[in-house]
Amino acid sequence: MTKTVAVLGAGMVGVSCALELQRRGWDVALLDKSAPGHETSYGNAGVLARSSLMPMNNPGLWASLPRLVRNTSAQLRYDPAFLLRNGRWMARFLYSARQTCFEETTAALDSLIRLSADLHRQWLPEAGAQAHLRTNGWFFLYRSAQAFERSQLTRDTLDKFGVATQVLQPVDIQALEPSLKPIFAKALWIKDAASVDNPGAVVTAYAELFVSRGGRILRGQVTKLARLNEDWQLSIGQEQALRAKNVVVALGPWSREFLRDSLGLSVPMAYERGYHRHFNAQGSAKLERPVYDTGGGYVLTPMEMGLRMSTGVELADLNAPKSDAQLELAEKAAREAFPLADSRDAEPWLGSRPTLPDSRPVIGASKSDRSLWFAFGHQHIGLSTGPGTAMLLADMMADKKSSIDAAPFAPSRWGL
């Protein structure tokens, strides 16, 4: 069979690719060392947001750099040794904050997010996961009027792409989220957004839908990828082997090392690591939707597991030890904003978001082999972009014109 494909990686992106390719008639095997949705895709803030089109490296980054380089904020922490080892990535990341690249990135991400939202609306009920969905948007919270004014670029960009928002005064914030403490001068309600109360469970539900339609999931570490005549030969652990005509690499933060070790490819990727911890609320306090405290540098989301506090960005090696610094700053700020009780977790969760210098994923075929496909580098918005990635990739694999422009995501822009 010529339409055989092995999808490597069972996070949101990989599972989405497996599900969409299966729908198009491909014989799909999905491979991962962990169960679907149990790695990076498990730990995000659960937001499905049009507002995620704003990359961290936008033109407003330059004004924030003097504060960020001090390495004391909750929004960004970094390991200086990691940045020295990845200086070229950092230079490209900063260079991509220029206006022209920002405009290309926001347009590309907006198209991918909108495509994904349509598929989520289709897949959630098909997978029996509709109950996880909320459609009441989320808040960007500002602790001062000056902080709100500094967000003009964000508001202008959301307006440009027709994202539905509403500016809230303190009385409005209290009416919609009465458990928030009255420390915020203004908020921006991103109405054009949804969220889920267990992102890992959503990925698992999509994977179960894939299996129910005849898909195969193989558990184990892919230890070798090599050409065997017209097929790809994959070794899985010590005992399993698989052959397929096509391979999709959707391994998220592990894609860099896998492609380097298997095929000698150099991927300009860094890791926006992030932590989360779950908390109980005091008394009858509750949240109806996720909130992003822009001054505190965390997102607080109501989840099945409690209130999930997700931190900002930590730039460090993929396997670097955990650090408590960012979590402690975020928790201090969160307690100023909401009546948190005790933590429900013995240990904080840590995940790595794979980030390319222009904050866009690579989606498409290798320039050297049209049977090797890439779908990784979604930084912290894989939940919002995974299904759209799958549709775009499936179109390309079928030589079909897609409804969105694939050029901004081309692997060839990074020599892949």
Please report which band the strand proportion falls in: under 5%, 5-15%, 15-25%, 25-35%, 35-45% or over 45%. Answer: 25-35%
CATH architecture of the largest domain: 2-Layer Sandwich
The biggest beta sheet is recorded as:
11 strands, mixed
What name does the CATH topology of the largest domain carry? D-Amino Acid Oxidase, Chain A, domain 2
Number of helical runs? 12
Helix and strand content put the structural class at alpha+beta
Low-confidence stretches: none
Number of domains: 2
Number of strands: 23
Overall, the morphology is globular
Mean pLDDT comes to 96
CATH superfamily of the largest domain: D-Amino Acid Oxidase, subunit A, domain 2
Portion in helices: 25-40%
CA-to-CA gap between the ends?
27 Å
Rounded radius of gyration (Å): 21 Å
- Broad CATH class of the largest domain: Alpha Beta
Describe this structure in words.
- The structure is a single chain.
- The protein is α+β, with helices and mostly antiparallel strands.
- It has 2 domains: 4-41 and 201-266 and 359-414, 3-Layer(bba) Sandwich (FAD/NAD(P)-binding domain); 60-100 and 130-195 and 269-355, 2-Layer Sandwich (D-Amino Acid Oxidase, Chain A, domain 2), CATH 3.30.9.
- Helix content is 33%, strand content 28%.
- The protein contains 12 helices and 23 strands.
- The chain has helices at residues 12-23, 61-68, 80-85, 87-95, 99-126, 145-149, 152-160, 170-176, 199-212, 255-263, 325-337, 382-397, and strands at residues 4-8, 27-32, 47-49, 76-78, 133-134, 138-142, 165-168, 186-190, 193-196, 216-219, 222-228, 231-236, 240-244, 246-249, 270-281, 291-293, 298-303, 306-311, 313-315, 340-343, 349-355, 362-366, 369-376.
- Strands 4, 6, 7, 8, 15, 16, 17, 18, 19, 20 and 21 form an 11-stranded mixed β-sheet that branches.
- Helix 1 (12-23) runs parallel beside helix 12 and helix 5 crosses helix 12.
- The radius of gyration is 21 Å and the shape is globular.
- The two termini are 27 Å apart.
- Residues 5-396 form the FAD dependent oxidoreductase domain.
- Keywords: Oxidoreductase.
- InterPro entries: FAD-dep_OxRdtase, FAD/NAD-bd_sf.
- Its EC number is 1.-.-.-.
- This is FAD-dependent oxidoreductase.
